[in-house]
Amino acid sequence: MYRPETAVNSPRERTRRIAARFVDSQPLLSVERARLFTASFKTTEHLPLVLRWAMAVAHVMRHIDVRIFPDELIVGRGGPEGRYGILYPELEGAYFSLSGTLLEKQEGMPHQFTSDDLAVIRDELLPFWAGRTFRESLAYSLPDDLRRLVYKDGDIYTPSMVIYESATVRHSLQWVLDYKKVIERGFEGLHAEASELLRTLDINNPRHNWDKAPFYRAVIVICEAMRDFALRHAECARTMAASCDDPHRRQELETIADICSHVPWKPARTFHEALQAQWFTQLAARFEQMHGGIVGNGRVDQYLYPLYQKDREAGRLNEAKTMELLDCLWLNMAQFLRLQPTIAGLQIYEGNAHWEHTTLGGVLADGKDAVNELSLLVLRSRREMPLPYPDVCVRMHPDLPQDFLEEVVQTIKSGCGAPKFLNDAEIIPVLRAKGIEEAEARDYCGSGCSEVRLINRDTYLTGTTWVNLAAVLEMALYNGHCSMSTDKPLGLTTGDPRKFTSYEAFEEAFLTQLRYILRQTLKQLYITDTLRPSQMAAPLISALHDLCMAQGRDISEGNLENSLRSGCQVGITGFATVVDSLAAIRYLIYEQGLMDMDRLLQVLSRNFEGFEVERHHCRNAPKYGNCIAAVDAIGRKLEQFMVEECQLHVGYYGGQPQIIYVPVTSHIAMGRVTGALPNGRRAGEALSAGISPSPGAARSGPTAVLHSVAETKYEAGTARAARMLDIPVPPRGVDGPEGTRNLAAFIRVWCAQKHWHLHLHMEDEALLRTASNDPEKFRFHPPHLPGYASLPNDLTPEMIRSILSCPQNFLE
Amino acid sequence: MHNESRGICFNIQNYSVHDGPGIRTILFMKGCPLRCAWCSNPESQRFEQEIGYSADKCLGCGRCVEACPNKALALGSNGLVITRERCSIEGCGAACSEVCPSKAIAVYGFSLSPSEALDKVERDSAFYARSGGGMTLSGGEPLAQPAFLDGLLREAEKRAVDVAVESCGFSSEQTMLEMCKRIDYLLFDLKHPDPAVHERVTGVSNEPILRNLASIRKTYPSLPVHVRTPVVPGVNDTPDVIASMARLACDLGATQYELLPFHRMGEQKYRFLDREYQFQGRAQLTAEDLQPLLEAANRYFPTKAREEEETP
User: Which residue of B has its CA nearest to A381?
Assistant: First the structure.
């Protein structure tokens, strides 16, 4: 059932108290990190970039306000009390030099600045960063034809949403840190390693020469900063304990002080220490960079398990305490929001979308199932969490134990929106095909929305560029133009489609436009790749990466030896929208003769106003997601075309570009700039998301969706990766224990069909109400009832009202 | 080669989870010897194809009127007026539905062969295998198309698809037993214990139905027989009536007994078919209404009562 976010329910009192303090707070975009980072950066222009970055992050950690709030057991934050975001001026900071951008409360922005913040931005940040930001750097490096595709009317802060680059709204694509290393070796261990490597640099060894010195120095700086940051918290806790009247809290503060004087510098000795070390590390990673979708948690049930087990055996830890500590960690994450200061970033992360990807399950290095007691506790903590944190993902594989899978299904059925699934049966073979050893491939973790990482092998970090596939279709319909852009044509001249005499001719025009746009996209990504090494550094991420440490190079340099040869990520948005539109063109014009191209263009140009009959023809044409062979074949051909096109190219760092279907919220923003389309979608409406069918288009049940999606995958292609799939579960479709088993069986088939990702969401009452108000965008699936046949005619509005008047009869 | 008699169906529904074990595909067969007033699938009753019309979706474009060779359609002030006596779908191939842009006119009923049916059903066999599911034949009344039914069961056997049948139980004993030989699960309806009342509300007496049930149990003692009663207000919604049916089911060896609360989901379909719905505006059953009835049923089927959701 629908739970408003402000209802702070949790079986644990501490969780309720902490959550209640911030759930309703207005998020603040903190300028502290920006101010301190800049203050350091200004003074280090004579040094190599990686060292400058390390010194700047260290400066932040030595001077940022350190406070501990009531009830906290895991301490440390990157901004003021309540919900906060961090401003990264090096990305888009020059935006504030434009007039109107520094208003205290800007239209459409989810956050606000205090007058002190405004002074910092105006007097300290802008004078330094204007002219130096990554966004400006990229904009000035793009050739004119590409600039026109990327920016709207030449304004580099307003994306065109035809090709959307995200490399400059964040530092990295998405990333997961090697927390295991921190827990097992501590930063002291990394410090010692870097010191030894620095000491042994040899002017006669070309593989280990003095060009690496700045990197190892940077690692040493970062490790010491980690130690000092924790010690500042220890001191704070000790001072607070001394003046604390409540003996219970005093004891807690003393424990915190002890823990922070130990980790993350030394290896963690307890589960509590491991969690604190994990949090300090990822908090520091947030000081260092903005990660796409927020830095991930990795395989928590694996790297936290040894200390969990040790503490349980020693009787130091019970289940209740474990749950409380996990909650404290998630609550810290929930207070950080990925706030974006510009419209460019906002559009891709609407509603503060966040993916602190937390991976459970999967297999061990030997291929055996990896689920343990802690996997279950993490799952339970997600179910009991009053907020949608953390983002939990289960790595599914054929031998995942049934009882664990049923627990997972129960969690999904609770309506908390989690977990989602990644599929070992698909992902491990894809990694193997890219040259990864079996044991290593088995250790992948989820990252970002539905992508994966091998955290000591991957190095590619340039943000995805999204392609508005629907805009490309418009280029074929309007001979190079996009309907909502009055400018010169954005695409190629492929001819007036009214003169085409076959569907094949239209398809050819579309693929010609698509090839052009894909190549422009790859060009933009290549140029971005060339700029990153001189614009970005990530000494903390690099210190925790085997390859970077061994080779003495920052991860931002991109082309490390022995790294996973994956190249840039080309995000395809509007896949189903375009497949449906192509299917409609073929069906309506060339097969059924229900209208000609001239009529279709007329109808689309009027956004269907006054053409109700034609719009219904468009809407009722065959759609992807219903297991219709002819439609699915269009999707398959499209996917193969894009994958093969990417396979012709090699990126700047030597990797192959990859096609991914991970929309984040680009399908909404891209829909806004796209006119009416032949599938019946009106101008401005959202495009389809990921590899999922268009909203409301899948009418043959969830099994048909799986068949269609499987059908479109180009199995033999190598230039492919994540495919985000979202499937709604119809009301009453998963009733009772048998419903749980059925949904588990459904997931097992999804696994066997080798899909990449799956998110199942319950169609709860709130969703049904939305559906009844907007039946075209949200299809109201008839409830499953015994013996009842749902009809080709949809439920009438009256029937929907009747169901909603008595929802308990139909909903769980 | 065995008989490939074609049959008439009106729907094929994937991922069905309330009509037999596991994930199932329901093949809804058209035509039923009973006429239950509360029937939620009125389009299932006649054996012929028919058209349904949804005024809510009609654009009033009049294309169907022009397309109809039988002059059975006219546009009135409240949408389409159908003269059903003149409508003959076999003759015209449902031209009205073909031309309807908004799909306001739907054809109920399509013909298919057993192997065509199983081709569609078999697509989801991976789901059946992992959930213990399969195909459910429903209706209408599957037993009312015995030749087609026989073909379906043989084809399912050949392809190793598990079969459940949902039946009102009204047929000759021979047809019933012939079917039960080839199925894995039987869902059997009991609507009222009293023959006279049964005849009044369904159009037929329950005597052959009860005879069939007894005979199935005797002939196929290991076939799971899941007896269900649609709880209909004013017809059988008293604890006494329910208790006596539960006892009947128990005495006749049912493996499970389930109450299906009345709902009005079928109401709009009567309108689509220009038929009168006798339960117009009747309140749906609430959990409180149902409670005493569940208790009555539980006296005979204590462990088979509606399974409770596990608490998280």
Answer: B312
Active-site residue A765, yes or no?
no
CB contact under 8 A, B103 and A701: no
In whole angstroms, what is the distance from residue A316 CA to residue A324 CA? 14
Whole-angstrom distance between the N-terminal and C-terminal Cα of chain A?
Answer: 8
Pairing of β A155-159 and β A151-152: antiparallel
* pLDDT score recorded for residue A354: 82
Q: Running along chain A, 812 residues long, what does each successive block of 10 average in pLDDT?
A: 55 94 86 96 97 98 97 95 92 79 61 82 91 94 94 89 93 95 98 98 95 98 98 98 97 98 98 98 96 91 98 96 98 89 73 85 98 98 92 97 96 89 97 94 95 95 96 97 85 96 97 98 96 96 98 94 90 98 98 95 96 94 96 98 96 93 90 96 94 91 95 93 90 83 96 96 66 55 62 59 54 38
Report pTM.
0.92
Query: By CB neighbour count within 10 A (0-12 exposed, 13-18 middle, 19+ buried), where does B308 fall?
Result: exposed
Q: Of A659, A615, A613, A625, which is closest to residue A756 (Cα–Cα)?
A: A659
Cα separation, A273 vs A63, whole angstroms:
23
> Does B269 reach chain A within 8 Å, measured CB to CB?
yes
Contacting residues of A for B56, CB less than 8 Å apart: 796-798
Tokens of A496: 């007036």
Listed residue (B18, B51, B10, B2) closest to B273, CA to CA: B51
This complex has an ipTM of: 0.90
B15/A733 Cβ within 8 A = yes
Write down the pLDDT at residue B211.
95
Chain A CB contacts of B106 under 8 Å are 791-793
CB contact under 8 A, A788 and B268: no
CA distance A605 to chain B (A): 20
> A697 and A636 in contact (C-beta within 8 Å)?
no
Q: Are strands B24-29 and B50-53 parallel, antiparallel or unpaired?
A: unpaired
CB-based contacts of A793: which residues, under 8 Å, 6+ apart? B52, B54, B57, B103, B104, B106, B268, B272
To the nearest whole Å, the CA of B310 is away from the closest chain A CA by 7
User: How does the average pLDDT of chain B come out, rounded?
Assistant: 91
N-to-C CA span, chain B: 53
Query: What per-residue confidence (pLDDT) applies to B303?
Result: 55
| CA pair distance B166, B162, nearest whole angstrom | 14
Closest CA to B274 of B12, B103, B46: B46
Q: Which of A641, A623, A645 is nearest to A632 (CA)?
A: A623
B11 touches chain A (CB under 8 A): yes
Residue of B nearest to A801 (CA): B265
Q: At what angle do helices A575-585 and A503-535 cross, to 10 degrees?
A: 160
Q: What is the pLDDT of residue A347?
A: 73
Residue B69, min C-alpha distance to chain A (Å):
20
**Judged by CB atoms within 8 Å, which residues 188-217 of B form the interface with A?**
none
**For residue B305, pLDDT beyond 80:** no
Cβ contacts (< 8 Å) between A792 and chain B: which residues? 103, 106
**Element spanning B250, H or E:** helix B239-251
A449 catalytic? Reply is yes
Chain B residues touching A749 at Cβ < 8 A: 126-127, 130
Task: Quote the pLDDT of residue A771.
Answer: 58
Looking at chain B from residue 89 to 128, which residues have their Cβ under 8 Å from any Cβ of chain A? 101-104, 106, 123-124, 126-127
Structure tokens at A32: 């502290």
CA distance A582 to A507: 8
Q: How far apart are CA B300 and CA B58, in angstroms?
A: 50
Closest CA to A725 of A352, A422, A354: A422
- Find out whether B70 and B91 touch, Cβ atoms under 8 Å: yes
Give the H/E segment covering residue A761. strand A757-762
